[in-house]
Sequence to fold (1193 residues):
Amino acid sequence: MARNKFDIDETLDTPFDLKHLKRAFVYMNRYRKKMIASLVISGVAVVVGLMGPFIAKYAIDTVIPAKNYGMLFILAALLMGIIVVNVKLSQIRSRTMTIIGQDIIYDIRNDVFAHFQRLTFEYYDSRPHGKILVRVVNYINDVADFMSNGIINFVLETLNIVFILIFMFIMDWRMALVIMIGVPILAVVILSIKNNQRRGWQQVSNKNSNLNGYLHEGLEGARVTQMFVREEENDKIFAGLSEASRKTWMKAVFWNNILWPSIDIVAAGIRVLIYLAGLLIIPGVSFGTIIGMAEYAARFWQPLMNIANLYNNFINTIAYLERIFELLDEPVNVKDVEGATELPAITGAVEFKNVTFSYDESSVILENLSFKINPGESIALVGPTGAGKSTIVNLISRFYNLNEGSVLIDGNDIANVTLASLRSQMGIMLQDSFVFSGTVEENIRYGKLDATPEEIRAAARIVCADEFIENFKDGYETVITERGTALSQGQRQLITFARTLVSDPKILILDEATSSIDAKTEKLLQQGLLQVLKGRTSFIIAHRLSTIQNCDKIMYVSNKGITECGTHEELLAKRGDYYKLYNARSA
Amino acid sequence: MFQLKWIWKNLEGNRGIYLIAVICTIIAQSITIISPMIFSRIIDIFVDPEAPTAAESAVLAAAALSEQRQLLYTLCISVLVIQLIRSLTFFSANMMYEKASQSMLYKIRTAIFFNIQRQDMAYYDVNRTGDLMTRLTGDLQTVRHVVAWVGKTLIENIVLFTASTVYFIILDPLMALALLILTPVILIISNVFRKRVGPMYVKLRETFSGLNIRSQENIAGNRVVKAFAREEYEKERFDVANKEYADANKKAALVWLHFFPYIESAASGLSVVHLLVGGLFVMIGRLTFGEYIAYSSLIWTLANPMRFIGNLVNDLQRFMASANKVIEAYYARPMIVDRQDAKTDSAYISGEIDFRNVSFKYSKSNRYALENINLHIKPGMTVAIMGETGSGKTTLINLIARFYDPTEGEVTVDGINVRFHKLRGLRKKIGTAMQDVILWSDTVEGNVAFSDVNMPEEDVYLYARLSDADGFVRKLPEGYETIIGERGVGLSGGQKQRISLARALAVKPSILILDDTTSAVDLETEAIIQDNLNNHLGYKPTKLIIAQRISSAKDADIIIILSHGKITERGTHEELLENPDGYYRQIFELQHGMVAEKSLTAEAGE
Fold:
């Protein structure tokens, strides 16, 4: 998967095909009954509406010339009645369709979001987050109208056209054929515009995606921007992206705008043709027929224009649907295998069996790695940056699939158990101490959703966070934000640490959990941790030797595997890499 | 209305085009009625001339057809020509509306981006990314829609309504009055509707922003979600936001549908009025049949604008809800800006820093983060800052580049209060490697050369070498051209830190701030980096180093220890070690003493 940045278009290579529409129909199909009901209601409304002209005709032909005052009042009342019924029917229809439209996008959005939850880190790591965001939120909104009202209107307008055609041919088939001349012309116009239009709107969605990707980064990185006085350069880039968005919009909208006036011209031409043909070419056409056919022609173009307009909508919708379905098609690399079982409550034995792993094809990170950890052991992983320490712990949680070999927990191959049952039994503290917007308490509770306030405070106390939290104006209710500066980095780390502890995991993974914490706090923390670590298997990645010396085993990771393994004393005695590292440190 | 004034202001440069578009709309809309007039002439002359009997009129028509065929052609061609003109005018008008509204969109969008980038840090403590994204995407689109579409349709409807009102009044004032009598009713209904639907759109906009925030944080925190296997929980939370948004949408639509029958009945009711009043007038001889039919064929020109009022109110209320949020971001003003009397950019800063009685308090906090700090740093000096988590280390260095202004006291750089420096000039001389590394989804090279896009490649390599990043960068699939994800994910913590350091060095700063920059770097690498910083930069910047490890701090000219916002110890490594109860001594013993002890046992065990 190619990595993406703000100025790279994520082009769709697949041509449009009907399968997108079919998938869209799956969503609409759930509301089939209501949609059909709406259609019937609309049909009734059309029929009722047709009675209006009859009343008007009757009034002109009979009632008014006869000066029948009483009848005129009755007709007016009748007309009013028809209008009221009609309005009521369209109100019911609109209400139904609005709700269906919203329900459909609600469904799609939930599906897309659910799919996101299954995608691996790689997906998120390889493209700007802002680009992902607009797909979940904005694109889906744009398909709502078409997938509800659009479809119904399409059916209605088609029926409308069919009826008018029938009437026209009954009235005078020769004249009707004259009108039909317009159809191929229109078809040519629409078809020649179509491709340009589709491409145009795809471009727009590409450019907007780029713009939003950059915008998101600009917001997230505002602090860095200010630090490095990059504002003007960023302004330029953003202006460039805005300009690209504007240009593609103008191109796409050009094709939209050209459609209607073109249809108007064709319609006027056909109307002229009707008069000329009726008066000069086709013999024996009555004057009434000419006027009647002109009326029908006028009525014929209206639904055609509406359909053309719907078609516009349809094209835009397709551009977005393609994006949405492309997302839903994004393969989930790490997922439950078929027949995956729940991992039973674990004791915490971990085994790597001939594990080979690489993030991409080019460079192997781990090669044929095997080791075995007993329940309750604490393991420190040391070694040069980028050697694969984080990779090893990531594999235990199955954040990535192995190339070869297997990882076993309590003898169960983790590839065969459900991800949820696996990960919920591990406590993973990541390098990146990410906090959600919300209160401190909510953030800690994320580790255990039903944690009591006491449990939360207990976890905070173990990691020495209780004191500073209580010092906030609102204590545990203090609201923190994702990027906010209300917390120092060390404090963030402590809160995320508490979050991990509160989940009471059997296997605890601490990836640089204390890197931003001062030595004194760390010392206090370790005393608390000794209690916590009892009965849990733990993997600790740290650069500070003080953090790792007390571990049961230290593994030195380098050369695509583990080169040294043993207790602190054993490894020192070996006088190998760990010994060197240790001496560099104590020198 | 302020919002519309603001729009008008931002249409500057495109007002001409917008006005021409309006004129085009008026023209195109006016000639809409010409074609029907021509066809009625064709009918009068060639199809159904006025004559006492049908037979006579047929004879007249046949005569006209053979004698005035030229006129028939002329009329037909003029229909086509007029349609062509009308189509072209409509098309041009539409493109001009688009051009004007897109230019305005461009202008506002870049202006807000410009503005938001320059906000104080405090702004980002309050405003969530997801909400700011909403303002610059959905909200702005709503504003654009008003300019491009609502403005245009409003004018079309006004023209139509005015023209036919005038025409109707000329035909028969009393009849016109009867038809127009419902207009005020519609206006009143619309006004009630406006009041009811306004808050709905505010709510709708809020829930939309909520949806954005939820999604954005889920995406940003995707690792945490996975680490805790919280996918189901996240789905539930998202479902709530999703549902709220869908419900708000439905609610707003249902309010409209509640009023719709009244407005629609009134608009359609015009034909009832026409039938009843018109019919009576014909019966009493006040109107001719022809006039009655003329009314009938033009009644839609009154009815459609009436129907349009409902949409207009809808769109405008939606617009108001969004425009207010956009305008808020447009006019947000940072507190920390250049003073009028700020010193002009100096090309050179020696790097002398002085904190004089500096105290600082975050607005949200009830205690001082820094209290009465006095610290003088000479150019080229290295200062190490240590202290407990939350003791104010990062806050202290944030005051130098003016990310915050002190609550009391002053910070000077080169003897001048930082408030009197130009912000840009000052910050350009400061290179910072932050604790929380934020990189951009760009190439490694782009990230290192962040401060200067035109930086030569050799320089990029140099700074990468100085921060010991060159080695691993070259091993990446595409070396310096490798795109690294947002926040540098895909790289290890230590690798990110080293790229961040290279980025800071690339500024060639007079003041280099390293905020715990090597915490995730292994010790050998740290030693290399320290050596590079001390001996291979080619010049001596003032260095402020926040550190947790003694090894990072011990060679500094001064080491200060912060505790609860106060400097509790200061001095060189040796001096601080002399204080047996001091924090520094304790840390030293914790880190070194323990090591020494252990190594003794290890030696003994051998």
Summary: Residues 231-281 of chain A form the longest helix (51 residues).
